[in-house]
């Protein structure tokens, strides 16, 4: 099929050739505002290599099978998954299919600590994020999420250890050579795959064409996740420009152009965040409540609880960068992180 270009058209099921020998298969997501995740299929010498894998739900598996059939292939022809980061819509189906097929799964080395924590016996879903919410001044939201998840169980398979920990360097895939580029920010171990000769970059959630990736919402945070993200954007911007092959959204012509837009967005958001503190807000939750969210400029209270968590965590990441830059002062006050000008 030809590539979809209209807004929302990228989620249409099918097999789309985005470059010679590179196909995109969008897979559905369960109850997710992102709607779909792009899986990219490349040809190796003895089978197929897939970049990202989708969420392990029957609909995603069926859609992947149908897409591969368009290439005259099946799941048995997949030899390797190269996964950009540990979020379940990228990682879970890979480790699930590994139970049935002799496939190898590769994940960035920077995700090792998160995998170890997420795989701890007896861990409750989102328990580390719930604790972080309390420090962000979002106690009632943390209580709500904790109560909502009290009966939920962790799927241990979901956080299974990969076969290969990916480090920066070249990975041969058939006639291609993919540079593994470490891009911490969205998660600590996020990586992108850059085909320099083919002028293609598989960006996962690091560079998305129509939305900004969430920052600061994972079990093991760096001290300055937004600073990490912006540094990773600069790192990608220094490399030769390439076609943007994202995990969510349509394929676009220039990674550089979108990186410039993301940097400008976060610059403006930092200014808005600082202004909120100068107006009297002291915690990440207070600041997030003063800001507006999504293209519709919605209030925090109008978002569902999960997106309230994401918004509060992202605000915290902006506040920490402002503190690192010396634009704000941060301190702990009775287990709550507070900021002042």
Structure description:
The protein has two domains: about 10-120 and about 165-255, Metallo-beta-lactamase, Chain A, CATH 3.60.15; about 265-340, Arc Repressor Mutant, subunit A. The chain is globular. The mean pLDDT is about 90. A seven-stranded mixed sheet has the order 1-2-3-4-5-6-7, with helices on one face. It is of the alpha/beta class and about 350 residues long. The protein contains nine helices and 14 strands. The termini are far apart.
Strand order in the largest sheet: 1-2-3-4-5-6-7
* SSE order, one letter for each helix or strand: EEEEHEHEHHHEEEEEHEHHHEE
What portion of residues is helical?
Answer: 25-40%
Count of separate DSSP helical elements? 9
Structural domain count = 2
CATH class of the largest domain: Alpha Beta
Query: Biggest sheet: strands, sense, closure?
Result: 7 strands, mixed
CATH superfamily of the largest domain: Ribonuclease Z/Hydroxyacylglutathione hydrolase-like
Q: Which fold name fills CATH's third level, the topology of the largest domain?
A: Metallo-beta-lactamase, Chain A
Secondary-structure topology with pairs:
Blueprint: E1 16-19, E2 22-28, E3 36-44, E4 47-51, H1 58-69, E5 78-83, H2 88-97, E6 104-108, H3 112-118, H4 127-135, H5 139-148, E7 164-166, E8 169-173, E9 176-182, E10 191-195, E11 200-204, H6 225-238, E12 243-246, H7 255-278, H8 284-290, H9 305-324, E13 329-333, E14 336-340
Provide a quick synopsis of the model:
The chain is α/β, with parallel strands linked by helices and 341 residues long. The protein contains nine helices and 14 strands.
